[in-house]
User: What shape does this take?
Amino acid sequence: MRIYKVGGAVRDRLLGKPVTDIDWVVVGATTEEMLAKGFRPVGADFPVFLHPKSGEEYALARTERKSGRGYGGFTFHASPEVTLEEDLIRRDLTINAMAEDDQQNLTDPYHGQRDLEARLLRHVSPAFAEDPLRVLRVARFAARYATLGFTVAPETLELMRQLSESGELEALTPERSWKEISRALMEDQPQVFVEVLRACGALKVLMPEVEALFGVPQPPAHHPEIDTGTHTLCVLQQAAIHKQPLTVRWACLLHDLGKGLTPEQEWPRHIAHEFKGLKLIKAVNERFKVPRDCQELALLVGEYHTHGHRAHELKPSTLLELLQSFDVFRRPQRFEEFIAACEMDARGRKGLEERSYPQADYLRGAATAARSVAVQPLLEQGFKGPELGEAIKRERLRALKAYKEKA
Ligand code: CTP
Assistant: This one.
């Protein structure tokens, strides 16, 4: 039995990056031998085991063949005869298809090290096409390593294009897709993820609503970058620069979807795009079974981001409606995330990245003013039920009026 470190752990060590989790491949062993050594099987019929102490994944060397659509359609063959090279050739990228023994001797039959130096994301073999999720994985790695100068090899992009056109992406489960999308959005350059998906034709399959933003102009006075797709990428980039959480990044990606629906004769204006975009945001949310907090923020930011920009002009009653829509009295954090998304939207414009965004503090101040209304005195005055609700609202409105006059 020979044991090797494989995949990301080898790649990241060679890149000088911190290694978080280690995957191992075991050559020359049987399931029975693994069980006898105390390894715990991960699934009933998959040759992957967890180490009894470290909990790390140990997989028997295997070959794989695709036997149907989607991820379920796989047959694999694991036996003590399968060689390390045979196991490595079924993997996605050359930089992920290197193995290392306990002396740090590298096995690199597909020239991963050369591609690391050349900063290339290149597929190992035509077997790449056996798992369509790899289209998203490559785009995610491109987003992660763009800062180091990595790009996708032209022949790999071509293969990704063929996969995208083949209809295979539609067979991906929402869960697998979302896992890649959410991880990609949290990378340093999430906009590269979208760019690579677009370059290989996957974006129009996965998120046609985002693809539709490219080629749609906006007024140059507010948007020097003009193109709505370009703007969306800039907003996403700002969200990463400002270390925003996933909820905010997801909302940034989807905030302007409504602009893709504007009839051409109305360009470059986009009247009511906030409202029109809601059904598209909902569709994308549902397609990937997006977690609730991300779904909700995306919808709220879609509907209210221009309110955020016009914060100083909003009437006290509109301000109060805005705060109520966010349920700010119970969920202050979500309102903070809304403010952050608005700020990213304002900065995600060519040449305006460093602008200040006084609306942020103004909105925070408004929330504080409305929250400062104490309920106890109203209870003492005898208000109950719906009347109490009305009285609280009246007092909050009064507080917001005073706030607006002072600001
Ligand atoms: N792998 C693959 N195709 C996939 C998923 C994984 O070929 N669809 C292989 C790659 O060799 C990869 C290894 O399995 O390096 C481990 O996969 P995973 O843990 O998902 O990714 P890492 O490469 O470790 O990268 P990350 O840092 O993103 O976890």
Notes: DSSP finds 20 helices and eleven strands in the chain. Residues 7-8, 23, 91-92, 96-97, 131, 133-134, 137 surround cytidine-5'-triphosphate (CB under 6 Å). The chain has a mean pLDDT of 95. The first strand starts at residue 2 and ends at 6.
